[in-house]
Each structure stands twice: as C-alpha cells, then as structure tokens.
Amino acid sequence: MDWGMKNRLSKLMGADGHCFYLPIDHGYFQGPTASLEKPGETIKPLLPYCDALFVTRGVLRSAVDSNINKPIILRVSGGTSMAGKDLANEGITTSIREIIRLNVCAVGISIFVGSDYEHQTLMNLSQLVNDCEDYGIPVMAVTAVGKEVGQKDARYLALSCRIAAELGAKVVKTYWCEKDFDKVVEGCPVPVVMAGGPKCETELEVFEFVYDGMQKGAIGINLGRNVWQNPHPVAVAKALRAIVHEKATPKQAYQVFNEAKK
After folding, report:
1. What's the CA gap between 93 and 57, in Å, rounded?
2. CA separation (Å) from 85 to 5, 90, 134, 157?
3. Which of 173, 199, 238, 247 is catalytic?
4. Which pLDDT score, from 0 to 100, does residue 150 have?
5. Separation in Å, CA 129 to CA 17, 222, 253
6. Which residues pair with 143 in a beta bridge?
7. Which domains are seen in the chain, by residue range?
8. Model confidence pLDDT, tens digit, residues 156-198
C-alpha cells in the first residue's frame, strides 16, 4: 500500500485502531432531516468526540468550518430521493478532481446488493476505486441489501461486505445484526464499521449493539441519527467514544451518558 493511502487511513483511526465516524450526509436523499436543518450548528459540540465526519461536498463547503482539524470522509454517491421510485438507483456525484480539491481523507459510496441496481452500484464502486487508487485515496463502501432480502440477515450482510472488499474498498460500513455478526466481520478482509440504522428506542439499546459489534470484530461505528437526534447528543457521543476507544461496557457507557447529561 502506498504511503499516501496508509497516511490517510491512519488519520481515520485512533491509536488503538478503532474509530467513531459521525455521518451527516442524510440530506442527500432525505432533504432537511430533523436535527440536521443547520448541520454546522449540530456538529459543533460533537466534533471533540468523533474521529471523522461523513458529509457531502455541498454541506462541507457551506456548513463545516475549514479550520477544523477533523478528517473528512466525502459522500460521493447519490442521484435519488425519498420522493423517487428507488433509492438504490445511485450514480457517482463527485469527480476525482473535486475529491482532491476538497483535501479529504477518504470517500464513501453506497452499494445495493440484491436490488434491481446491484450491477450499477457495484460498477460505481469499482470505477471509484480505479480513480481513487491513482491518488492514494481510500474508499469506504456503504453496504445495503435489496428489500426482498433480509437487511439484518448475516448471510446477506456478509455477501455485501465481501463483495465490497473484493472490488477494492478499504473500509466497509454495514449494519450490525444480532445473530452471526462475527461471521460477517470474519468474512470481510478489510475493516468493518457499524452503521446506526433507524433511531433506537433507548440509549442503552444503542450502547449494547455497539459494544456487541466491537466484541465481534468491528473496528468502530458510523452513527448519526442515534447521536444528533437524541435530546442529549453530546452525552451520547461521550458514551459511544467510551465504548469505542476506552473499552467501556454498555453499563459503564450508560453511566457516562447519565453523568454527561447533567
């Protein structure tokens, strides 16, 4: 692996090899998402606790201070919306020249295995890897599976993660599943980070699945809604950082949350 690629990847991980990414890219298909109406204000108190931001170029330029010392993972796929027919019908939205111009540490792109657009999104990933390898820029694949197959089924998550790694992704973002998540991680030859998915009912529920996934081999998390849509987002961020980087148990993380909430 080239020095530039290694250097960028090192900035995306803590000294322990673990990571807490904060995604604020939801508006690229959802529009003004609750609690992200003003993304710059939302992230300001959370930046000390995350290791990187996952964001689109538009929000990066318009709402993120260029002086922040925080690695950026740039969302570079899109082209659909909640009002459209199929969210899986994505293309690459951002050129390699733009990626370099924005000085990001990595890029992220979605793939939709098992959907009608499986081939298209896998070729999107392949093309992005081809472009980014020339400049030492890591690609994170964001896995999803078609509605007709189980989105929390380890078989399909493992399938998606392995294909993403085979096509050249350096990191894979996928969903945690209650059963056989260790097999999902073991079958993927590159690091796996956990997505948050829909907002959980309780904070403890979030801490429990994050802890379980870390114990089963994930290197970290890429959680947004379960952080910034919480009434106490800073407290949640502190607690998650304790699990990811300090090996806190869910019970200990909940204590951190309650103390920070005060």
Report:
1. 10
2. 37, 12, 35, 23
3. 173
4. 53
5. 23, 21, 37
6. 111
7. 3-197 (3.20.20.70)
8. 999 999 999 999 999 999 999 999 999 999 999 999 999 987 7
The interaxial angle of helices 233-246 and 250-261, nearest 10 deg, is 150
**DSSP H helical ranges for the chain:** 3-11, 27-30, 39-43, 57-63, 96-101, 118-133, 154-166, 181-186, 203-215, 225-228, 233-246, 250-261
Task: Mark residue 113 as left, alpha or beta (left: phi above 0; alpha: psi -120 to 50; beta: remaining).
Answer: beta
| Tokens 């998390």 belong to residue | 221
Residues 219, 231: Cα–Cα separation, whole Å: 27
The 10s digit of each residue's pLDDT in 140-159 is: 999 986 554 556 789 999 99
The question of whether 173 is a catalytic residue gets the answer yes
For residue range 208-241, what is the model confidence (pLDDT) as tens digits?
999 999 999 999 999 999 999 999 999 999 999 9
